[in-house]
Specification:
The complex is a heterodimer of chains A (262) and B (258).
Chain A: E1 11-20, E2 23-33, E3 38-42, H1 49-57, E4 64-69, E5 72-73, H2 79-86, E6 89-92, H3 104-115, H4 120-133, H5 150-162, E7 168-172, H6 180-197, E8 200-204, H7 208-214, E9 217-222, E10 225-231, H8 241-248
Parallel strand pairs in A: 3-8, 3-9, 6-7, 7-8
Antiparallel strand pairs in A: 1-2, 1-4, 4-5, 9-10
Chain B: H1 2-32, H2 40-50, H3 55-77, H4 86-124, H5 127-133, H6 138-176, H7 181-190, H8 194-220, H9 225-256
Helix pairs in contact in B: 1-6, 2-6, 3-4, 3-6, 4-6, 4-7, 4-8, 4-9, 6-7, 6-8, 8-9
The chains are: A alpha/beta (262), B mainly alpha (258).
Chain lengths: 262, 258
């Protein structure tokens, strides 16, 4: 609880700005995510969703603003403190980002072995348990990522994201590139894993089916600003023209997609 | 005129900035190696990739280099009846100069390109970001093992290249020009000094480090998908090859200029 008697958010973002050259990608983001909550960030391509998540993870440093996790400032953390913070986090990357040179189980156990110094045999058992949690058998553990289908790679990436029982899990476009059935399988797995761990989840997606299914709250990002934030159940009644255009996938509306290079 | 001067100045400043970035990159990777964890398994794997798998290409180029050297020096020296110096010229040229340079250039083409492509692909597919989120420092895990492996392995490769290169010269000298085998070998040893071999090994260590550094640096900073990775690979090979020749002159000047 904070001084005012309210609950301290797990992640609190205030006034975050980030530019690349003259291109301002994030323009004063204010956003909270409560502990155990599943927050979905939606928005068109190039609106800064991935940049925002990378700023939270410390992969990019914001030009201005504050990002607090568990009420502790994370912007400008040193290498050691950042490593400790990242041990609380799991990330599922858009393209899965599995290490080609390693076997599936080594991918899943990577953070345990290299990041936490767990013996390989013990880490292998944890990896096989996590693979089974995402519906993959022991036989898959010895394969290389290139031998798996896209859906299986996503599952392995999910197993890697949850391998160390993280407090916060980030999902970057978890269903992009999958057929609707596999996308639903991944959504169910995300729900099971997040609820099973009691973790806080932050997902970025274009997929409204996924957003409605997985999210407790949804925030919409447009031109580097949060234009709407509310419960997932309220999104159809948001009254926000940006949200309405986005969730109905209409070409007409306040959002103008760039169709040619500037 | 002013425009031309401005563009020369801009290019020079760009060169200085790039040099600074490369030095900082190398220093950061080496500094990461001062504290644990140490990825011994990764270092050994890199040594195998750089050293063992480069043996065929380095061996082939070394034997033909030695053979051509014997051929050229024999036809040249025969003009003033100095054919007897062929064995000495071959061994000194191979150990001091051609062994490390040829091996360095071959490894730059084979290993430097592969490093840039592998790390570049890891960059554009977010695998390097994934490493960071898995509490693993990419400089420590990806770059440092390659730098150390390049530094240690190229001298070992050059020892092999030296032996094979001298053997190439021996083959041509004995079987084509009819030198007495014992006399050829005696001539080979007669004027060879420890410094000749050691200087070649020092060059090899520097070249190995340069090849690995250029491969890692350009791969690590690649952008923009397949095209960016391809560009990184080209930059890695070209810059490593140029730097090998530049450092070759610098080291030779430092070690042998009187």
């Amino acid at each position: 609880m904070n001084a005012a008697g309210g609950t301290i958010p797990k992640i609190a973002i205030r006034g975050v700005r980030k530019s690349f050259g003259r291109n301002r990608v994030l323009d004063g983001i204010d956003l909270d995510c409560g502990a155990g909550e599943s927050l979905i960030i939606i928005g068109g391509s190039g609106t800064g969703k991935s940049v925002l998540v990378k700023c939270i993870l410390g992969l990019l440093r914001p030009d201005e603003g504050s990002i607090r996790i568990d009420d502790a400032e994370t912007v400008g953390l040193g290498r050691r403190a950042r490593k400790a913070l990242l041990q609380k986090c799991g990330v599922l990357f858009q393209g899965s980002a599995l290490f080609d040179s390693l076997k599936v189980w080594e991918n899943v156990a990577f953070g345990l072995i290299q990041g936490r110094g767990m013996p390989r045999d013990a880490a292998r058992e944890v990896a096989i348990t996590k693979l089974s949690a995402v519906g993959l058998g022991r036989d898959v553990a010895e394969l290389r990522p290139a031998e798996l289908s896209g859906g299986m790679q996503k599952r392995v990436a999910l197993a890697r994201a949850i391998a160390a029982d993280p407090e916060i899990i980030f999902f970057d476009e978890p269903t992009t590139g999958l057929d609707p059935i596999m996308a639903d399988v991944i959504n169910n797995l995300i729900l099971e894993c997040v609820r099973g761990l009691g973790a806080t989840a932050v997902s970025i997606t274009h997929d409204m089916v996924s957003a409605r299914k997985v999210g407790d709250h949804i925030a919409m990002l447009h031109k580097g600003q949060i234009v709407w934030h509310g419960p997932a159940t309220e999104i159809d009644r948001s009254g926000n023209p940006f949200v309405d255009q986005f969730i109905h996938g209409r070409a007409e509306g306040p959002i103008h997609m760039e169709v040619r290079a500037q | 005129m002013l425009k031309a001067l401005a563009s020369i100045g801009a290019a020079f400043l760009g060169f200085l900035a790039a040099s600074g970035r490369i030095v900082i990159f190398a220093a950061s990777a080496l500094a990461a190696g001062l504290t644990p964890p140490f990825y011994l398994r990764v270092i050994l794997r890199q040594m195998r990739d750089i050293g063992y798998f480069s043996l065929p290409v380095v061996g082939l180029t070394a034997i033909f280099t030695g053979m051509v050297l014997a051929l050229q020096s024999y036809t040249g020296f025969s003009r003033f009846a100095a054919e007897g110096a062929v064995a000495t010229v071959v061994v000194l040229s191979v150990t001091r100069e051609l062994g490390p340079v040829i091996a360095g250039l071959m490894v730059a083409g084979r290993v430097g390109a592969a490093m840039a492509a592998e790390i570049g692909t890891m960059r554009v597919t977010e695998q390097i970001d994934a490493l960071t989120t898995l509490s693993t420092d990419p400089l420590r895990y990806l770059v440092l093992p390659r730098l150390l492996a390049g530094l240690v392995t190229l001298p070992l490769l050059v020892v092999v290249a030296d032996v094979i290169g001298v053997f190439g010269g021996y083959l041509v000298g004995v079987y084509k020009f009819g030198f007495n085998p014992g006399a050829y070998l005696a001539r080979t040893w007669q004027y060879l000094e420890t410094n000749d071999v050691v200087s070649g090994l020092i060059k090899a260590a520097v070249f190995g480090f340069i090849v690995a550094l250029m491969g890692c640096y350009h791969g690590y900073h690649s952008r923009g998908g397949a095209q960016g990775v391809g560009q990184a690979t080209t930059y890695a090979v070209v810059s490593a090859s140029i730097l090998i020749l530049v450092f070759d002159y610098g080291i030779t000047q430092a070690l042998f200029a009187r």
